[in-house]
Amino acid sequence: MITLKINGQQKNWDGDPDLSLLWFLRDEIGLTGTKYGCGQALCGACTVIVDKQAIRACITSVSDVVDREVTTIEGLHPTGDHAVQKAWRQLNVPQCGFCQVGQIMQAAALLMDNPKPNHDQIREAMAGNICRCGCYQRIENAVHLASTGV
Amino acid sequence: MNIRTNPKKLRGFERYIKIDNVSRRSILKGLGLAGGFVLAAPVMSRPSLAAYQTGADKMPHGTVVDPRVFVAIAPDGIVTIVAHRAEMGTGVRTSLPMIVAEEMEADWSRVRIQQAHGDEVKFGNQDTDGSRSTRHYLMPMRQIGASARTMLEAAAAKRWGVPATEVKAVNHEVVHSASGRRIGFGDLAADAAKESVPSVEGLKLKDPKDFRYLGKGQISMVDLRDITVGTARYGADVRLPGMKYAVIARPPVTGGKVASFDGAAAMKVSGVEKVMEVKGWPWPSKFQPLGGIAVIGRNTGAAIKGRDALKIVWDDGANGKYDSVAYRAELEAAARKPGLVLRKEGDVEAALKGADKVIVGEYYLPHLAHVSMEPPVAVADVKGDKAEIWGPVQSAGGTREDVAKTLGIPQENVTVNVTLLGGGFGRKSKCDFAIEAALLSKELGAPVKVQWTREDDVRNGFLHTVSVERIEAGLDKSGKVTAWRHRSVAPSIASTFAANTVHQAPFELGMGLVDMPFEIANVQCENPEAAAHTRIGWFRSVSNIPRAFAVQSMVAEIAHATKRDQKDMLLELIGSPRIVKLDSVKDLWNYGEPYDSYPIDTARLRKVVELVADKGGWGRSVPKGHGLGIAAHRSFVSYIATIVEVAVDDKGKLTVPRVDTAIDCGTYVNPERIQSQIEGAAIMGMSLAKHGAITFKDGKVQQSNFDDFRVIRIDESPAVTNVYIVPPGSDTPPSGVGEPGVPPFAPALINAIFAATGKRIRALPIGKQLEA
Prior knowledge:
Strand order of the largest sheet of chain A: 2-1-5-3-4
Strand order of the largest sheet of chain B: 9-10-7-17-14-15-16
Strand content of chain A: 5-15%
Order of helices and strands of chain A: EEHEEEHHHHH
Low-confidence stretches of chain B: 1-47
Oligomer: heterodimer
Structural class of chain A: alpha+beta
Radius of gyration of chain B: 27 Å
């Protein structure tokens, strides 16, 4: 039996200890905010925060995160009003929206680490997150806005 | 201004900052006709009557203009408006209901959206494809809103005993200004329901100067908040009690099938519950599944792990030798010989022979995969002779029809619930993934989710075609172009529907080949034969991508050869402002639109070129290693021109400091979403230009995921993309937005690279060509 701490809540798992965190979150405990996009840590759609670091849930097994604090989009902010979320809405960032949770989690982790990232730092930190709709200009502006106060 | 440090001052962005309190939860209780819900009454199809004609009523099931189908008002005043098209990021789920709200004078903060299930008899055509939604539904949605408003006004007038002409709907209530009386929509709902639906002919539409929402760009997408908090529901997010999770191993070669398989090892994987064969259809089979072996698990991860353990021997069939290197040579050979003549003006052969100079360009574009961020996925629950589907489908009606046909049950027994689409780009107009889920659910007797992995998406999709476009331009002594021969060779989308297809269809030939707008005396357009060896499908902008790449590259090649400015050359070729007459073209297609309403108007094409040149600073001096390129193209009956600035360093590293695009899409609804579509089109255009290639060897796709089918990431995206929207004339019909932005990007980029480096790239993607 593995016990995980997801958004402050204990979750138990007695199945395959190699199951990826992504499918555990989505299929076993119904936290579908975290998305599947590639399964190979290439697109960032499944980004969650473990302790204070952004990680790709698709290549992280449930046993890797035992005794760690896992934060998904559902636990990022109690009312969905994290500075990054507010900035995203203010600048109308999304198009289809599917990658945006991963983008938001990556941006939130960036700001924990570096509260005032510059242009290059934003681009570098967000380069692992693909948006096929091409919202990059707004993503960059929204990260900047979140860092300067929404 | 520096957009990086002052996001409140984005170019052209200031007007579109979101207003608070307008985003709405997307999941509503159904229109279940709970007491007091009105205007949602029996269905009666009513065609629209527009001030201009569109091809809307020629689409399957046409349009339905009936407020009782699209509008419901609750006693508390909440107005529910049905969105009948699919949301894949264009904002259509917001824009079309917003048109209804505008005309009926509903207050947007008291409007809720209900997504229609698939029922084209009830709602009209739902196939969200071809950049058609606003173009076909602006006027019908206005009429629906105006009908609802008229009914509300009539009900209020009766209650007060005054003539209907004395009352007026204003912001969610009806007002009788003479007496100062006013009554809310909610209080009028029951009475309004008893009014007859007014005739479309007699409807009074609002004066555009009174619009509060249309054309303003101040309303955010209804799903915006849900997207940012993770509650927006895509196909992949649907979960049903007792639902099984499935992935499928499909034939690696199109037309292949399972020869034998061994599922024993897969069954030993923790969480795997079943291994079973899925029916496939012989190629070509439209949108039917490819077949293969399904692994069913208690979660998707288990199913994928189980699939990895399958042992399958495939029978590759007739396409097992498909090889992209050899096929390109075949296409090039075909392009060098005469083909089926589709357009002929003057005598191109004689004009080329007599030309002072002939410039030849052969332009190659490989297959492309859509790779929407949400790979195909669907949930099905089949019980007896009834089926329910949940999925990110562009064509809810088509999905219903195909699922019903496959299961052998009446369409009325199939319910298709349309979720949000995590990107579509044409891939999700094909419903094979929903049919797969239905087949598995029927067999398992339980709800099933079929999840395509990214590898499945890359290897088993409906790819953008592969093409060679060959253009020969003949110039006289003065440098004037007197002859233009364009041969287009590419396997057709029609090959996915019918075997032995070797010619492109009118809907492909009409995308930048036969509709070429230049003013040249001798023009010939030809289509030599090409056979398909994989599934070809619509990809955002479709054949306009290779055509604009070829034609707009050739313009710059001629400019270079004659030492003229690219933009001047482009305007010279477009020629005088006129309505282009194309008498020699048998089937112009014209995106399905009547030519009277949507002619090829070179004045509009010239205008976007001039606008982008002006706003985008064409001709400005740029640093060493930088270059400017321009391209213009009409597609989906919109006009668009793009300027790209590139920088290429001495190691061949390409960056894009700036993009400027001007679009004329006629009368528009939501300029904020138009801007986002054009921003995104630049990224998709750059992705295909820089990295995009799906290649085959031994019949199999050689790429698998985002590492070898690359798309643009934020660190290589343009530093800034500026969008300029041409204000429409008072009677300009609406035209496409979702797709027109993509085609001009690649040629503008390639022309800019030539300006920066002197290297002319004629085969995409750019890949490592600049590193040589």
